């Protein structure tokens, strides 16, 4: 019977090609607008490290006090150098790493090549195992090299191609500004989107970093941060680099790995005790105030998803709803014009259930056709999404098998939903009245 209903549906749609085309286009446009904006929303709101997101935490310490909230400031989303070093020395987590963004000029060994700017991070050895950073060659440095302030560096595969033509560069030397560093590892393509570990300094969707080097080495060289440096309440601090390190300026990001609920609670207790100790030492003069947010909570706190993506998604869903309302009207007009045909079928013994099956099959054909059109329009929309969103965000949107399947499924389900009322009206046609009036 399904094959028979399919034949009837195709025959009916061919009888009214203009009406059929209008329904297919309405569904296609509506679904395409929703799927295009969903592709962007999916890209910016995804979990960048799903295997460990519940184990990664970013601590925040209130170094400014309640008076800062009265002026519109929230608890800082980064740490001071003093607090970051205290947490590193305490070593209360399985892994912990302080970090901040830095920039240098890479000087190729080939004298014919021009120097170029590179950006990366100064961090600690635990950064690599904590975030499951993959390597093509070598690996990260160890805690001993952190303590030794070693001149070692981990470079990206892109920088490795630029400097060493993609060969195994472990053990070779690169020059950043006026200092040489020994390459000990080459990272495979790794750039979690959004870049959760540096949301305080980055929108989360920039190109991957070019290198990583020991935090201790960067501080020795007095390398200033390329990120945010908020110095609220630091008026009158001592001058120079040492004064900046000892100030209440916040500029260091900090992450810890806590594998279970017990370690999370233990770390909360540690933070509370640490702040209480700072109160007793006279550094803080307000009640203990700290937060410990896991990765997904941190992304919400930092408002990773741009508000325009949410607004665009809501608007596109509204447009889809308008298209579905129009489709309902078109289907209702099309189905009710066949009232006489339905009456004859009912008089010849067709049940209402069979009428439902026939017209829902016809709607399914429209839905699948609309879905195919929607896939084409979605592809065009994704190509042009850069006209609406920032380039760093727009380039994340892409059409894959999952999006194609979702587009087809959405079109089919939406069309069947839109066909419910017209089909119900068609199934309620009274055969006796139709036979008398026709």
Q: Could you give the topology of this structure?
A:
Layout: H1 2-15, H2 17-45, E1 56-61, H3 66-70, E2 79-80, H4 81-90, E3 95-107, E4 116-123, H5 127-130, E5 135-138, H6 143-147, E6 152-156, H7 157-164, E7 173-176, E8 179-187, E9 211-214, H8 215-220, H9 240-245, E10 250-257, H10 261-280, E11 290-294, H11 295-301, H12 307-336, H13 339-347, H14 352-383, H15 391-394, H16 401-427, H17 431-437
Helix pairs in contact: 1-14, 2-12, 2-14, 2-16, 12-16, 13-17, 14-16
Overview of this protein structure:
- Strand 7 and strand 8 form a beta hairpin.
- The model has no long low-confidence stretch (mean pLDDT 87).
- The protein has a 6-stranded mixed β-barrel with strand order 3-4-9-6-8-7.
- With 438 residues, the protein is an alpha+beta fold.
- The protein has helices spanning 2-15, 17-45, 66-70, 81-90, 127-130, 143-147, 157-164, 215-220, 240-245, 261-280, 295-301, 307-336, 339-347, 352-383, 391-394, 401-427, 431-437, and strands spanning 56-61, 79-80, 95-107, 116-123, 135-138, 152-156, 173-176, 179-187, 211-214, 250-257, 290-294.
- The relative contact order is 0.19.
- Helix 1 (2-15) packs across helix 14 (352-383), helix 2 crosses helix 14 and helix 12 (307-336) packs parallel to helix 16.
- Helices cover 51% and strands 16% of the residues.
- It starts with a helix and ends with a helix.
Notable features of this structure?
single chain, 6-stranded mixed beta barrel, 51% helix, elongated
Summarize the structure.
By secondary structure, the chain is α+β, with helices and mostly antiparallel strands.
């Amino acid at each position: 019977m399904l094959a028979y209903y399919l034949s009837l549906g195709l025959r009916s749609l061919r009888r009214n090609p203009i009406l059929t085309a209008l329904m297919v286009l309405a569904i296609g446009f509506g679904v395409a607008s929703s799927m295009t904006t969903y592709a962007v929303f999916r890209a910016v709101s995804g979990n960048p490290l799903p295997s460990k997101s519940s184990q990664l935490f970013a601590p925040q310490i209130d170094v400014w006090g309640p008076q800062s909230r009265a002026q519109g400031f929230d608890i800082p989303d980064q740490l001071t150098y003093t607090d970051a070093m205290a947490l590193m020395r305490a070593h209360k987590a399985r892994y912990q790493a302080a970090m901040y963004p830095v920039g240098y000029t890479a000087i190729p060994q080939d004298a014919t090549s021009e120097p170029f700017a590179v950006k990366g991070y100064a961090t600690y050895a635990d950064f690599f195992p904590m975030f499951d950073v993959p390597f093509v060659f070598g690996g990260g440095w160890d805690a001993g090299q952190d303590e030794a302030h070693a001149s070692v560096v981990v470079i990206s595969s892109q920088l490795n191609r630029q400097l060493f033509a993609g060969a195994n560069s472990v053990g070779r030397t690169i020059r950043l500004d006026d200092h040489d560093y020994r390459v000990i590892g080459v990272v495979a393509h790794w750039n979690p989107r959004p870049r959760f570990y540096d949301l305080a300094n980055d929108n989360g969707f920039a190109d991957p970093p070019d290198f990583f080097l020991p935090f201790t080495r960067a501080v020795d060289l007095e390398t200033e941060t390329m990120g945010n440096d908020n110095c609220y309440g630091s008026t009158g601090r001592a001058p120079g680099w040492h004064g900046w390190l000892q100030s209440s300026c916040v500029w260091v990001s900090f992450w810890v790995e806590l594998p279970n609920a017990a370690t999370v609670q233990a770390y909360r207790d540690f933070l509370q005790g640490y702040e209480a100790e700072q109160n007793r030492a006279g550094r803080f003069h307000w009640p203990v105030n700290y937060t410990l947010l896991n990765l997904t909570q941190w992304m919400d706190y930092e408002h990773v998803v741009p508000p325009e993506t949410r607004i665009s998604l809501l608007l596109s869903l509204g447009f889809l709803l308008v298209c579905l309302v129009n489709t309902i009207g078109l289907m209702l007009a099309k189905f009710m014009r066949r009232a006489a045909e339905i009456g004859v079928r009912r008089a010849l013994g067709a049940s209402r259930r069979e009428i439902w099956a026939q017209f829902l099959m016809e709607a399914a054909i429209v839905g699948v056709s609309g879905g195919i059109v929607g896939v084409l329009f979605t592809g065009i929309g994704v190509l042009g999404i850069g006209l609406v969103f920032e380039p760093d965000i727009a380039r994340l949107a892409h059409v894959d098998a999952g999006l194609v399947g979702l587009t087809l499924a959405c079109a089919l389900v939406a069309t069947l939903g839109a066909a419910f009322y017209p089909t119900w009206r068609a199934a309620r046609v009274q055969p006796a009245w139709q036979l008398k009036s026709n």
